[in-house]
């Protein structure tokens, strides 16, 4: 059983930290949005810090995340942005207080390292969703799903898509996943989540088509894909191609790796490095029900 942190209520204190890359520009829109939800926002020392490409050196980023996880007055921790850096500090974080007193951890992209590590070792629900830096471009719908997730409201979601046929079926399991490249970067480590009987969500940005193919082959050859109860394919944005072209779309690349299995496969879920990045709650048990064109994700 996963542990579900207490849902937020007006007046709660939340922290913003930068465990990965430094912030370019401002997160004022993100701060003001959280305040408009009735939350008190405190800012970590890494917000505004920089050390090469990182939001401060590894020691500062470790200490800042540790503070946010340990402070009992803080009820949720937002990564301000992703980029790169979480894998450099995850083994230095002491999660013992967090395990005893869970709180919401929110982010996507490089924050997949933390999602995966927490699902593997502590089985505490976390939220894959918009971060303060992406609030300024995020759709109203995506921000509403994040607010609903944090405050304990319904985030079940249904949609129709016709660009590539889903595999029809129904599967139930804990929702896991995140950024595909990051999932590959923690493969066979202490942060590599158990995929058996899970519903896997994947997304990515700025990758070459052959790289997506290679990464999915790695998951398949590692025995990860055959164990799933369902697959949710999100946004694969700003893709790059070679000359000559790779010759397959992302959906075709994914389908080639899972066509021999029988679990439901849903394409086009609105989550990832896209403006309409709907919140997902990792570690929660869900039902994924698909027809060729429809998708229903329900939290149990």
By oligomeric state, this entry counts as: single chain
Return residue spans where pLDDT drops below 50 for at least 5 consecutive residues. Answer: none
Spatial sequence of strands, sheet with the most strands: 6-13-12-7-8-9-10
Report the β-strand fraction as a percent range. 15-25%
* Helix fraction by DSSP (H/I, runs of at least 4): 25-40%
Number of strands: 13
- The helix tally amounts to 9
Task: Characterise this structure.
- The protein is α/β, with parallel strands linked by helices and 300 residues long.
- The protein contains nine helices and 13 strands.
- The strands form three sheets. The chain has a seven-stranded mixed beta sheet with strand order 6-13-12-7-8-9-10. A four-stranded parallel beta sheet has the order 2-1-3-4, with helices on both faces.
- Helix 7 links the parallel strand 7 and strand 8.
- Helix 8 runs parallel beside helix 9.
- The longest helix is centred in the N-terminal third of the chain and has 13 residues.
- It is globular.
């Amino acid at each position: 059983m996963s542990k579900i942190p207490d849902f937020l209520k007006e007046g709660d204190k939340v922290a913003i930290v930068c465990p990965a890359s430094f912030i370019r520009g401002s997160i004022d829109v993100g701060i003001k949005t959280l305040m408009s939800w009735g939350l008190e926002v405190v800012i970590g020392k890494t917000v505004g810090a920089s050390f090469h490409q990182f939001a401060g050196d590894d020691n500062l980023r470790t200490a800042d995340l540790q503070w946010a996880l340990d402070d009992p007055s803080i009820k949720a921790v937002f990564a301000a942005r992703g980029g790169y850096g979480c894998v450099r500090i995850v083994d230095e974080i002491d999660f013992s207080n967090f395990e005893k007193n869970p709180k919401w951890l929110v982010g996507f992209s490089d924050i997949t390292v933390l999602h995966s590590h927490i699902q593997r070792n502590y089985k505490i629900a976390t939220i894959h969703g918009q971060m303060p830096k992406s609030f300024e471009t995020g759709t109203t719908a995506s921000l509403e799903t994040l607010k609903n997730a944090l405050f304990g409201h319904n985030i079940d979601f249904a949609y129709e898509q016709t660009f590539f046929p889903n595999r029809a079926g129904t599967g139930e399991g804990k929702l896991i996943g995140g950024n595909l490249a990051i999932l590959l970067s923690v493969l066979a480590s202490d942060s590599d989540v158990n995929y058996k009987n899970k519903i896997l969500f994947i997304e990515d940005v700025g990758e070459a088509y052959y790289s997506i193919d290679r990464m999915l082959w790695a998951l398949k050859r590692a025995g990860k894909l055959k164990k799933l109860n369902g697959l949710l394919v999100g946004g694969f944005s700003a893709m790059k191609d070679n000359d000559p072209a790779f010759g397959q779309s992302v959906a075709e690349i994914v389908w080639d790796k899972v066509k021999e299995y029988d679990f439901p496969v849903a394409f086009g879920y609105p989550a990832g490095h896209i403006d309409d990045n709907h919140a997902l709650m990792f570690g929660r048990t869900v039902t994924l029900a698909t027809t060729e064109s429809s998708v229903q994700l329900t939290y149990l």
